[in-house]
Amino acid sequence: MAFGIVIGPRVRKSPFFEATVAAGVSHFSIYNHMYMPVSYGDPAAEYERLVAGVALWDVAAERQVEVQGPDAGALARYLTPRNLESCRLGQGKYVPICDHDGILINDPVLLKLDEDRYWFSIADSDLLLWVKAIAAERGFEVAVREPDASPLAVQGPKAEEVVASLLGDWVRELKYFWFRETELDGIPLLVARSGWSKQGGFELYLLDATRGGELWTRVEAAGRPFGIGPGGPNYVERVESALLSYGADNEPDCDPFEMGLGRFVDLERPDAFVGKQRLIERKAAGPRRRLVGVFIDGPPLASNQYPWPATVEGRHAGTIRVVAHSARLGRNIGLALLLSAHAEPGTRVAIHGEAGRLDGTVTRLPFEPSEGASVAPLTMPGAAAAG
Ligand code: THG
Fold first, then answer.
1. If phi over 0 gives left and psi between -120 and 50 gives alpha, with beta otherwise, what is residue 306?
2. Which of 65, 94, 106 to probe ligand 1 with, by most ligand atoms within 8 A of CB?
3. Is residue 128 included in any domain, yes or no?
4. For residue range 280-307, what is the model confidence (pLDDT) as tens digits?
5. How far is the CA of 315 from the centre of ligand 1 (A)?
6. How do beta strands 308-312 and 92-94 pair?
7. Is 218 found in the same domain as 359?
8. Are residues 118 and 106 in the same domain?
9. Residue 260: inside a domain, yes or no?
10. Which atom of ligand 1 is nearest to the CA of 192?
């Protein structure tokens, strides 16, 4: 393609921007009004580092929405249908956020920093505006703001070695989604065991935006013996792992049940939360659509012209949101948002991509390697070279 994108002040730069340019970034996406690196020009190597080594990602675009004050906990509970009773200080939780109609409007990670201070580490929608409005309209006594916090992800099976060599062996004890504040030679950080892949790893939230270059350099140096290299949220791995990409996988009117997030919605909670009544009705009615997997026949596929329409027996059945060629599964896979009647595993769908018709088979998520191809299980990363 012969076009580019203008870099200007309206879209924000991450504190790691210069470091990523120096590291050879080739492609940015735009996420939360910020440039987010997604590739350094060698997708196969970037995938391989993630599943068999260790990768360094600038995910500062995962912006934080801070709520602080006597009503912070009450506001956090009011904002999500998830039950937060078990959320301890130092713990993170994946929390769908819905509007009053029960529609999914973001799917952040919530971090409980203190009894009166929480962060929502947000996906790509303007949650800050929403939280400010709900807090003010409901009279919650809180301050809502965007703190100076910019995650840098270290992902992959060797991430623990890298982060332990950088920060100490205590990081090995951090449980999934838990975090701790620390510093690295005076660079203030929050370290969490989390990240948008199923390969394991950490997110180092930089708490001083003036020190992005320094932190990047330190992590790269600590990672060098382990073969660290730059990357970004990896679209092939995330399709294989079926990690939800808000805005890509959903339509603007999808609810959490349709998106497979029903397990994070607690309708038995006695207290009020945004969208509760409509979520109760939606649950009772059953999902109109469902996010499912599809195995797509034919040679390796890629596209940048989503979504693709899908039909069953000539009739509209929904859309294919994203496709990828999975070397580990030895086949093309995709995520599809299909009308429930056509979302049963085994359903054959016709897919209408820009290069013509393709055929696929619906499968449940996460993808099961046993259904079809004879390949290594997904829990053994690196078993197959990335194509
Ligand atoms: N890390 C941080 N902030 C984020 C993301 C992140 N903000 C944006 C985006 N990612 C939020 N969306 C997700 C989606 C999925 C997961 C995390 C954030 C995730 N899901 C696991 C799963 O679905 O299997 C586990 C969920 C659970 O069981 O609690 O990890 O990545 N800081």
1. beta
2. 94
3. yes
4. 999 999 999 999 999 999 999 877 778 9
5. 34
6. unpaired
7. no
8. yes
9. no
10. 32
Any ligand 1 atom below 6 A from CB of 332: no
CATH code where residue 131 lies: 3.30.70.1400
Residues with Cβ < 8 Å from 257, sequence gap 6 or more?
265, 282, 283, 286, 287
Same domain, 126 and 172: no
CA dist 349 and 89 (Å) reads: 46
With a CB cutoff of 8 Å and minimum separation 6, the contacts of 13 are 34, 35
User: Who has greater pLDDT, 166 or 301?
Assistant: 166
Q: What residues make up the domain containing 134? A: 64-145
Query: By alpha-carbon position, which residue is closest to atom 28 of ligand 1?
Result: 94
Does the Cβ of 123 fall within 6 Å of ligand 1?
yes
Tens of pLDDT, residue by residue over 46-56, are 999 999 999 99
Q: Is residue 112 domain-shared with residue 96, that is, in the same domain?
A: yes
**Does the Cβ of 243 fall within 6 Å of ligand 1?**
yes
Split into its structural domains, the chain has a count of 3
Q: Is 282 within a domain?
A: no
Give distance in angstroms: CA of 359 to centre of ligand 1: 31
